Amino acid sequence: MKSYVALLRGINVSGQKLIKMETLRKVVEDFGFQNVKTYIQSGNILFDTSGNSTPELLEEQIHELIKTHFGFDVSVVVTDKEMLQWVSKSNPYLKEKDIDLKKLYITFLGTEPAKENIEALHNASFEPDEIIINKRVIFMKYNNPAGNSKLNNKLIENKLKVTATARNWNTTLKLLALFEEREAS
């Protein structure tokens, strides 16, 4: 049995793509995933699965479940505890003195972007916000309020040509804590 978290992009935001978490949990459980738990309304689904499932296969399966049951085309990125542990220890912005944690976000990428696409994102105009890309993760520091920034999922996906979904720093750490709670129980 392996535990994962599916990160859904753009549900229950500004009255769009409304999905009740209770219903989503039931759909995911009925598909066969076990120990299903959701965290907040933005679409974070922790679950266990047996077999040799890959994150890519799980992303496809959950994407299709949502499309079939709710009628929404929702981007899904699946990751695991090890990735969240790595992110929590590797965030380069944590080294800054007096960093405001509310400015930190993590964008999880469906696949590792090509070098030329990384260059295209770096050449895009989103100052004064900052990014550091490392494999399938973008460490982000918003110097403007995140909602007012040009640095958003649409820009990231457009430039990198990959699926992306962002979580604030506190949510990222909470997801890691939920994995640890699962193991303790």
TrEMBL record:
SUPFAM superfamilies: SP0830-like
Pfam families named in the record: DUF1697 (PF08002)
PANTHER family in the cross-refs: BLL4334 PROTEIN, DUF1697 DOMAIN-CONTAINING PROTEIN
Record-given protein name: DUF1697 domain-containing protein
Originating organism: Flavobacterium microcysteis
